[in-house]
Amino acid sequence: MKQTQRTVLVDQINITLKGSTTMSGAPPVVRRLSELPAYLISPQDTVRLAELAGPDHGSSTSVFLEIWEPGGAQPINSHEDSAEIFIVLAGQAQAHSDDDTVELTAGDVLILQPGSEHRIINTSETDRLYTITVMANDGGFAKLVTDGTPVELTAEDIAMLVRPSGVPS
Fold it and tell me: How far apart, in whole angstroms, are the C-alpha atoms of residue 26 and residue 8?
C-alpha cells in the first residue's frame, strides 16, 4: 500500500513539474572577456567596471569585474533596494559602510546591505584591486556603468579570471 502511495505522489510531482515548465525561447548568452570593454562611470574615476552579465543579457542581477587602480577609490554611493557583494580576487582594500570600516584581502567576500552608504579604497600604492561584484535588483546600475566612458581591459585584467592554456592549476 505504501509503495502505491509513493508512486502516485511521484507521478503527481512529475505532472506538476511538466505542467509548470515554460521556455523563454531565448538562447543562452555567452560573453567573451577578451571582447568586453570596461567603463569609467565618470572620466576622472580610478575604478573600471566590465559588465559580465546584467539586464541587457536577461538577468535582473548584474555581475561585474571591477578594477581599482593603485590608490583608487569609488565615490561614496548607495543602492537603496540592492545588496552588493564583492568577491576579492587580488589586492587589498579598506571598505567603508555607514559607520563601519573593514580591511579586505584576496579571498574575502564583502556583503553590503541595501541602503548602506559605502566606498571601497584600494590601499596599495603599487597593485590593482580586483573584485567580482554582484548586485541583485540592478536598479539601473548596469546602465549607469555602460553609459560611462569605454576603456579597454588589459591582458593583466583578463588574466585575473582566465588561466592561460597549459598552465597547471
Answer: 34
Mapping DSSP to helix (H, G, I), strand (E, B) and coil, where does residue 46 land?
Answer: coil
Grid cell, residue 100, equals 563601519
Q: Where are the alpha helices (DSSP H) in 30-108?
A: none
Q: Which three cell numbers stand for residue 61?
A: 542581477
Q: Rounded to an integer, what distance in angstroms lies between the CA atom of residue 39 and that of residue 24? A: 30
Q: Residue 120 corresponds to which amino acid?
A: I
CB 38 within 8 A of CB 157: yes
In sequence order, the 6+-apart residues with CB closer than 8 A to the CB of 158 are 33, 34
pTM for the full model? 0.82
∠ Cα 123 136 42 (to 5°): 50
pLDDT digit string, tens, across residues 36-62: 999 999 999 999 999 999 999 999 999
Round to whole Å and give the CA distance between 69 and 52: 19
Determine the residue type at 116. S
Predicted pLDDT at 13: 43
Mean pLDDT for the chain overall: 88
Hey, CA dihedral for 29, 135, 82, 139, is it positive or negative?
A: negative
